[in-house]
Amino acid sequence: MKRGINHHQVGDSVETYLLIKSSKKGIASNGKPFLTLQLSDKTGEIEAKLWGIAPEDETTFVSTVIVHIQGDIQDFRGMRQLKIKSIRPTTGMDQVKIAEFLPSAPLDPNDMLDKVIQYIFEMSNPKIQRLTRHLVKKHQEKLLESPAATKNHHEFVSGLIYHVVSMLDLAKSIANLYPSLDKDLLYAGVILHDLGKVRELSGPIVSEYTIEGKLLGHITLMVNEIGEAAKELEIDGEEVLVLQHMVLSHHGKSEWGSPKPPLIKEAEILHMIDNVDAKMNMMDRALEHVMPGEFSERIFPMENRTLYKPSFHEKPLEY
Amino acid sequence: MKRGINHHQVGDSVETYLLIKSSKKGIASNGKPFLTLQLSDKTGEIEAKLWGIAPEDETTFVSTVIVHIQGDIQDFRGMRQLKIKSIRPTTGMDQVKIAEFLPSAPLDPNDMLDKVIQYIFEMSNPKIQRLTRHLVKKHQEKLLESPAATKNHHEFVSGLIYHVVSMLDLAKSIANLYPSLDKDLLYAGVILHDLGKVRELSGPIVSEYTIEGKLLGHITLMVNEIGEAAKELEIDGEEVLVLQHMVLSHHGKSEWGSPKPPLIKEAEILHMIDNVDAKMNMMDRALEHVMPGEFSERIFPMENRTLYKPSFHEKPLEY
Amino acid sequence: MKRGINHHQVGDSVETYLLIKSSKKGIASNGKPFLTLQLSDKTGEIEAKLWGIAPEDETTFVSTVIVHIQGDIQDFRGMRQLKIKSIRPTTGMDQVKIAEFLPSAPLDPNDMLDKVIQYIFEMSNPKIQRLTRHLVKKHQEKLLESPAATKNHHEFVSGLIYHVVSMLDLAKSIANLYPSLDKDLLYAGVILHDLGKVRELSGPIVSEYTIEGKLLGHITLMVNEIGEAAKELEIDGEEVLVLQHMVLSHHGKSEWGSPKPPLIKEAEILHMIDNVDAKMNMMDRALEHVMPGEFSERIFPMENRTLYKPSFHEKPLEY
Amino acid sequence: MKRGINHHQVGDSVETYLLIKSSKKGIASNGKPFLTLQLSDKTGEIEAKLWGIAPEDETTFVSTVIVHIQGDIQDFRGMRQLKIKSIRPTTGMDQVKIAEFLPSAPLDPNDMLDKVIQYIFEMSNPKIQRLTRHLVKKHQEKLLESPAATKNHHEFVSGLIYHVVSMLDLAKSIANLYPSLDKDLLYAGVILHDLGKVRELSGPIVSEYTIEGKLLGHITLMVNEIGEAAKELEIDGEEVLVLQHMVLSHHGKSEWGSPKPPLIKEAEILHMIDNVDAKMNMMDRALEHVMPGEFSERIFPMENRTLYKPSFHEKPLEY
Amino acid sequence: MKRGINHHQVGDSVETYLLIKSSKKGIASNGKPFLTLQLSDKTGEIEAKLWGIAPEDETTFVSTVIVHIQGDIQDFRGMRQLKIKSIRPTTGMDQVKIAEFLPSAPLDPNDMLDKVIQYIFEMSNPKIQRLTRHLVKKHQEKLLESPAATKNHHEFVSGLIYHVVSMLDLAKSIANLYPSLDKDLLYAGVILHDLGKVRELSGPIVSEYTIEGKLLGHITLMVNEIGEAAKELEIDGEEVLVLQHMVLSHHGKSEWGSPKPPLIKEAEILHMIDNVDAKMNMMDRALEHVMPGEFSERIFPMENRTLYKPSFHEKPLEY
Amino acid sequence: MKRGINHHQVGDSVETYLLIKSSKKGIASNGKPFLTLQLSDKTGEIEAKLWGIAPEDETTFVSTVIVHIQGDIQDFRGMRQLKIKSIRPTTGMDQVKIAEFLPSAPLDPNDMLDKVIQYIFEMSNPKIQRLTRHLVKKHQEKLLESPAATKNHHEFVSGLIYHVVSMLDLAKSIANLYPSLDKDLLYAGVILHDLGKVRELSGPIVSEYTIEGKLLGHITLMVNEIGEAAKELEIDGEEVLVLQHMVLSHHGKSEWGSPKPPLIKEAEILHMIDNVDAKMNMMDRALEHVMPGEFSERIFPMENRTLYKPSFHEKPLEY
């Protein structure tokens, strides 16, 4: 996979591994069933049709399966499409891993987890420290790979922990400038604020909302967990309530999903840090391939604005 | 207390028991301390000044104390005021109870609780039944006397259970008309939707928001409790999640404090029933003393509207 | 019409009666005119092309005509289409009625009218009774078949009277629970609130807004009619004004089309009952074919929400 | 009434006629009843206390009575107050008329009515002409003296007809610039748009909302009257509907009280002309006494703005 | 160009001059490049495909080039399309001018400019006069041909000056009715309010936003220019500030792009006049081809309303 | 001024210097003029009445004069008031300076200016550097003492430069974390964003809006100045436009006073940094004197929230 599927042109022949992101059955005009496959690697996605399928193909070529494929890139109504010549599901022999086929955070998840744990070590309030440590440990496995969202920002493998680590560094530098801030609270708030997403979202490959995600949401799920953790760890004291409030209020306004607005200084700052990091991520990606003197695509979650790259800024490296 | 403090005119002399709702110290222009007492019985409130107090008076005449008082009703800048001639705190000998000095629901709290329990018995889903029973039992004592709000509607002793019982009857008659409704869910939702208020509000006498009430709110508190109850009772299954959603969404919109809107039919109906009962209560009280052909005072939580009593309607009985 | 057009698959041959809902002329690439027909029966709709038409066909195959048709169900770009082999307009000989080709209320319109009249008989205020009786009589014929809306809820034949009857039962049960309500007013409000729709909408087959419907709307039209009826019946007294206000305010807010908000208790309750019945209708239909554990389609007039059917609820019968 | 009550200083003795705008009974600290009178002439208002009243005084000195009064202007907590030495109600002998005691339009009401009738004569569509003529005649007496509002703009005697005449001249000049406008419609819309205020408001002296004004509002009242007038005059045709729409939509948006927005060109222009004339009136009065280089008081119905008078503009004449 | 491209039917052969409004390269299914041309004359636009192009064609047939073309009008999926038989770019020999191929104002631009200058001559405040004269002169050339917008209203050649002239006549007639208005300010405000559009928009042929138009907007651009002009002309005094405010506030509200609302009477009137003229233009065009008794297309910038032409109005001439 | 006026109790006698913040003439009930003085030092304010004044006193005891005063602190309706025994204006002999009587930033203004200049030195884009340097120099004197607002945040002497310096440090630490940010742009945006306040506000002592502040606002004023500076310095290039956009858009939304939203990444970040620093300042001050476990006063510009200080936080030092 030297080049990646996104770099192939119409007319190229390809032989490569690709991940099936979705598979949908249709009936052709000749009455025979076929599959529309959405195939991806780290660089992007391409559509392919698998014609004249047998019944067993429907259960073989499903979402999250990695396939080995041979075919040609064609033009179909202005879109690239992969014409399949041969396709087979991979086995252990192929030695391929899903993570290699999905866009992911630029840092190693385990290094990021180490950094989170380092921040936890720095806390001086033992109640906050124990609660945070407990919840990180409980969800550690999923935290390593969960995206931070299904779209808009940090919607890639390990996006959640990447978002947390960026926010921790931001929190540290802001707390150094405004020493009245309680660092323990702020770090714990950063680490826990979106941790409920490991239950709200179905996972890194096909990221969808779970039923409890839709009916309760990641905020309520994590507020509940903080309460349960305190019971389990037999931690009393206002720290529990305050941490629950930090998570509950981090969307800032009831219209944005927080039934209570931030009523503690660190909660307000947590909301702002979250906002800064999410928008930096959106803006950097929107401008990634934009030439100086030109405008980006519209960014929906930023009021549909289109950003300008000043003509005195540098060209993107890989253009 | 034949007549009640609200029925005395300027010029009357009174000798009666009254409850201190609040007590606030001030310094007179002669430099001496005094107390401004807000005194109440079931019929209303009156202000009194206690001049020239001794230090121990500050700790004697405090909120929730019932006092025996002699004095005259005077006019002070257009308001009635009680000029105190003698005042003493009551003891067991006086045989007076706080409940007699506060406005309260028109039904007996224990009868209402029996009715709630009757509705629980009618449930056929055992998980919903056990969860609801458990939580009612846990908060039974406070449920008997808690108001449903600090103002606007059902803001009196036992207001919460009175609101619940009215809603249960309403739920029953609606469910009979629309048989697709799940009565178990609807009844459980009615019973639990505001139960968190026993923790959000400080109690029936001086009803204020508690700290956890302000930082988390009654909705989040009860959602948490449902989860904890399920753990304790070892109840699994989607009923837990669905009940949590019923409580979470009963304010209807995120702007009104529900981070998720109702996504289950019974949750939407719960929201509507809550609305009907709360508004009926507000409207009945606003119109209570209004003569036919006249308008009520403005009702703040109903967009500040003033209601009209048609001239062909009857006069209030006790006018 | 044993099965209904909606139950035919691609490949089926059909011979049946269908109603033309709309007919639109086009010019084919060979320069010849053709008609695009939208055909329906109670179960649904299907599109058909009538190629190579003669001039008289344009006036024969028009909206509201019932045709006898033979043809095959084909696939056209993923949609079912009816390929016409033979088509003829029906005559009296065919003994078919439009009502059989349109979705309609589940109760008999005449039974529903009897129920409305029964409610009118129960009124004790003679002015309200006479006004209501007069207006129902005046529009009786159209009331029997009018839909309650062009879309969203009760948008079927006799939908209006079905909506009224459901609301009357709801009004009765609520008035029994809150005896301070004036039943006469409430029933009259329910019966008249949407009666202007018989003038606002063009009728049950092709339900569109009339010009007076667009320029004045059903609320203003009925408020005017109440005034005219009172003149005609020589009824004086505030009942006229109050009934006009009930109709005027039943949308609840000026943003929703009521220039005055409800200022009478029964007007507020009318608004709420209308809301409950409309939403129950929308929700029941959205969930009709949804399996337990799954979500419905989005419901546009309910803030585009998608509803969840709990997994412990029953499967739809006819799935 | 050479000077007017507003021009008297503290310390002056006055002997003059004044109109009682309101009269309110109170009980003095000595237990005796007194009246608080709000007295006015064209220049303004002053408060007076009538102490030690006899029972018959309560029914003599009531709202809309003109009194002859002798007294002194005093200062009471920073406000001017009239200390009454003698007071008596006037009789026919005094030859005083209410109109002389109220602020009023700068033109003669009968001249303005002549102008309105002249505009009606210029109409060429006989249906529009007859409807307009009929309704003006019906309400002619009240139209001559009604204010256009209880506050904000044209809230003085004959304010309504003054507003109409200004708008007619504005309509004429705009219609001359945009000849596609239908002058008949526009003039009729101007004349009828606020005519319902003669029923919505209680009259020129104590201008309050009537019950039908509160429950239906001037827009709905006039829309009804146009319909009734058409029946009475046996006028058919779309002109009736279109005129009703003009009145119905003239507030421009449902939030502002028009259940339908303007859907006819002349209706949109009517809304704009209304806006221009109302705001010119507000702005002129707000700036009347402002010196160049200074700001006016806040104007509530103009989003609470305060207007600036440029320093190169002229000083107000009478400063 | 007797008839214009908009009046040709499918099947016609045409030989005419047309302006290329846009040209976009595509790759056909046979792998060869082609151009999609959007061609226009004063009457409208048509699409054409230029197949099998040579590399030099890509730079020849570009936006703003006038071509001589022969071809046939065909139907392509319900849209008219021009099948090109021969095409060549024009030269000086063809004696064609771009202005002839674009919709434009119904008056001669130079006559309109004379009228603007006439209004400037009528001003009596020399500072306002000189500033206005200077800025008109500076942008005179572009003012003659600039549209007033890219869409919605006056979006044609010379649309800006046409809009200004209409508003000046409107301003004059309003100022005559309300003599308290400062005509100099009002006229200057009208002339300058949208003059920044000559920099905000790229020009009359392909009207797009410039970079400074997007980053600052026409309001800020013109406010800056007024300041610079005052420096250059060495004009002091509040007139400069007041004129800047007139331009700054003419959108009326911050949500509509004016950081300050109108705080001067003439600024408020300017905002209203702008609104009247823009809406008259939109409404006249929306109704141009509508038959009496029918509704127009939806007008997006007027809250998406559709306007009704009363059935007693006249038919459009050219229908 | 060891203690400061805010620390004196009712009953204290004082002899001290105080600054007159405002002086207002009134007429006493005995007809004699008096002055109501608002007096302040760094710690707070107190009211005093100067009775029986001579005409020259009105011009002596005016705003911004420092007086030497002897008197007693009294209680007047629950407020402290200073009863004046003797008062005289100060002269050079008193050696008192206004700055000593006003709340001010905690850092030395000249040190802060040095820091700003240091940041300018670090810029590498010479155009941005020169423009920023020029404008800082031009307004240097006022920048040293101007507040950042009339209320809400940084509303003290040198509040503007204090706000700028805090934001610069914040900008630096954020830019270090997100290296894609253009530091030059960000620093220049921070330094210039509120610099227009030196013209919008009247100055540090009696901080009111100037006329140009009200009619144009600080944003428009500074955008104009950047343009003028570029002309003067003969700087071309997009840097000018981009800097103008940075200032123009820094309020984030049109409703908040920015006619264009941020369309450049650094502009968005500038808006966020401004928000963080302003809110930290508001929150720190609101919580300054709050005890752990208690709530602050309501903070109006933060949606009227009241902040909670967790009970595990420390007590304020000086309580």
What does this molecule look like?
The structure is a homohexamer of 319-residue chains. In chain A, 39% of the residues lie in helices and 19% in strands. In chain A, the strands form two sheets. A five-stranded mixed beta barrel of chain A has the order 1-2-3-5-4. Chain A has a two-stranded antiparallel sheet with strand order 6-7. The first copy, chain A, has 319 residues and is α+β, with helices and mostly antiparallel strands. Chains in contact: A-B, A-C, A-E, A-F, B-C, B-D, B-F, C-D, C-E, D-E, D-F, E-F. Chain B binds chain C through residues 125, 166, 169-170, 173-174, 176-178, 180, 182, 185, 237-239, 242, 253, 261-265, 268-269, 272, 275-276, 279-280, 283-284, 287, 293, 295, 302-303, 305-313, and chain C through 125, 166, 169-170, 173-174, 176-178, 180, 182, 185, 237-239, 242, 253, 261-265, 268-269, 272, 275-276, 279-280, 283-284, 287, 293, 295, 302-303, 305-313. Chains A, B, C, D, E, F: InterPro entries: HD/PDEase_dom, HD_domain, NA-bd_OB-fold, YhaM_exoribonuc/phosphodiest.
